[in-house]
Amino acid sequence: MEQLLTSPADATDHKSFLAKKPLIISGPCSAETEEQLIATCTRLAATGKVDMLRAGIWKPRTKPGLFEGIGTKGLPWLQKAKQLTGLPTTVEVATPKHVEDALAFDVDVLWIGARTTVNPFSVQAVADALRGTDVPVFIKNPVHPDLELWMGAVERLAKAGVKRIGLIHRGFASYGNTEFRNAPMWHLPIEMKRRLPELPIICDPSHICGNRTGLAGVAQKSIDLDFDGLMLESHIDPDNAWSDAKQQVTPERLAELLDGLTWRH
Length: 265
Ligand code: PEP
Ligand code: MN
Known about the structure:
Number of strands: 8
EC number: 5.4.99.5
Helix content: 25-40%
Strand order of the largest sheet: 1-2-3-4-5-6-7-8
CATH architecture: Alpha-Beta Barrel
GO molecular function: chorismate mutase activity; transferase activity
Keywords: Transferase
Protein name: chorismate mutase
CATH superfamily: Aldolase class I
Structural class: alpha/beta
CATH class: Alpha Beta
Bound molecules: phosphoenolpyruvate, manganese (II) ion
Radius of gyration: 17 Å
Enzyme class: isomerase
């Protein structure tokens, strides 16, 4: 990575899209209906504790037959949520068409999901679609604990000219039932922080835990490790969410959870 940074200004660029630390990103796992998305986003904004809105528009699901996202028709809903709240937005992209559509609807920040980071062809296609744009991009760790693949995705984007790259730690799959849906394996994101100190790294407790009870503990741990922010899923009716129902919390519960954390000064 060192050789990909051409000047000290490049290093500041990477951090510069985090308007503040900690950066708090929240929103539903998936955009479902216009009403659900707007209500979730306006209630999140009303807490005054969220800096950026997230919504899954295209959902890469492990198994077929599950809800695979509302698709491009959800983008105008997210654009409306942005206009109503004044908050920037972020969306997962996995293909060049996703990049094109998201940018056409004013999405501010993109992220690459864990199931895409594992695939160099997909990452390269997304990187090529980003060439010539100046949009910041977060890269989630790959599903399995392979740091070189995570590094490779960073390098592909950097080589395509993406100047503002961030990392998202969402835990790593392991076989069998554990306390976590995706084990945090904290030593791995810590090693990424050591290798790429100029890149912001935020934690996604929702996909690490896969339940509501563990969220605060994982969020606190990431703050104690000096992560730069959090991405947490929120839904107006978590139990009836079309994806990731077990781990989502209402906007008001999210605010309580954030209030209960001890922040670094
Ligand atoms: C998500 O953010 O809803 C998602 C699908 O996450 P991940 O790529 O971490 O599984
Ligand atoms: Mn999700």
